[in-house]
Every structure is written in C-alpha cells, then in structure tokens.
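Progress note, sequence design subtask.
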C-alpha cells in the first residue's frame, strides 16, 4: 500500500520515441521540489454606484515545476535530463500520471532551465541544478502522444 508521501514523488516513463526511461527516483536523478500553480481568473465588471462586480472567466493555466540537482560525475543522471530535453524538443503533449494511477491530463514541457557549475578540467559540470516547467494541455494530442508517458506526482 502506498502512502501519500510515496505518491508525491515524481517519476517519468518512456517518451515513446525510443529515448528511454526517465526516472526521477533513479540514483543520480533526484529532485528537491515539486510546485504547482493553478490560475482561475475573474474579470472585473464596472457597475455604477457600487463596487465592481466579478465574473469568473474559467480556469486559466495549470503549471507544474520540478526542481532538482544532479551530480553527473558522482551519481549519473545527466543522460536522463538529456532525454527529457530531447522529448521537449519534439513538442508532443505528454500524459501526466501519478505512480498511484491518478491522471492529471496532458501536459507540455514549457522549458528546462539548467545551472551548471563546478566544471572539471574538460569543461564537464560536476553539479547541474535544473527546473522542468510543465503546462496543462487541453487540445487534442497527436497519435504519437498516446505512446508517450510521463508520470509525476503533484
């Protein structure tokens, strides 16, 4: 039986294009934070001699950010981040699913920020802090997206 704490850990599956599996729980590819931001805007409507009324315009954006630090020389993980970067370049929406099976719908990788430091004599980073930004996708995914699987815990 899984606990809520176990279900809150990100995990990424295969991308369906042969780029391999990306497991956040794998040795060397861990994360430090998972953040989620949901915007639900209300429009102001001017009303004479009263405070402005508000009208809900519907849900806005549903964003997820995953932060972590890799130490590729000591623990690996660089190849997993390279694979996620390659999946982002393909531009296909990916399904966001928790390890417990909760489906959050399709998401797109909006960006991957990296902060590489402590370079060795050959220029390879010994530390790579990253942030992966995902955004909920509400359109119809392409057929190849059905072969893609991303599993994150929010």
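Output:
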């Amino acid at each position: 039986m899984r606990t809520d704490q176990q279900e809150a850990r990100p995990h990424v599956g295969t991308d369906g294009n042969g780029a391999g599996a990306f497991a956040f729980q794998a040795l060397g590819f861990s994360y430090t934070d998972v953040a989620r931001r949901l915007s639900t805007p209300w429009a102001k409507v001017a009303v004479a001699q009263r405070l402005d009324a508000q009208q809900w315009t519907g849900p806005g954006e549903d964003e997820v950010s995953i932060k972590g630090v890799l130490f590729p020389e000591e623990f690996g993980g660089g190849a997993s981040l390279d694979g996620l970067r390659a999946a982002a370049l393909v531009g296909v929406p990916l399904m966001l699913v928790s390890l417990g099976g909760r489906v959050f719908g399709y998401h797109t990788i909006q960006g991957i920020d990296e902060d590489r430091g402590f370079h060795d004599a050959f220029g390879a980073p010994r530390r790579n802090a990253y942030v992966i930004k995902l955004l909920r996708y509400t359109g119809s995914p392409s057929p190849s997206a059905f072969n893609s699987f991303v599993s994150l815990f929010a």
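Confidence is low (pLDDT under 50) at residues 1-21, 23-27, 145-154. Work on this subtask will continue into the next period as scheduled.
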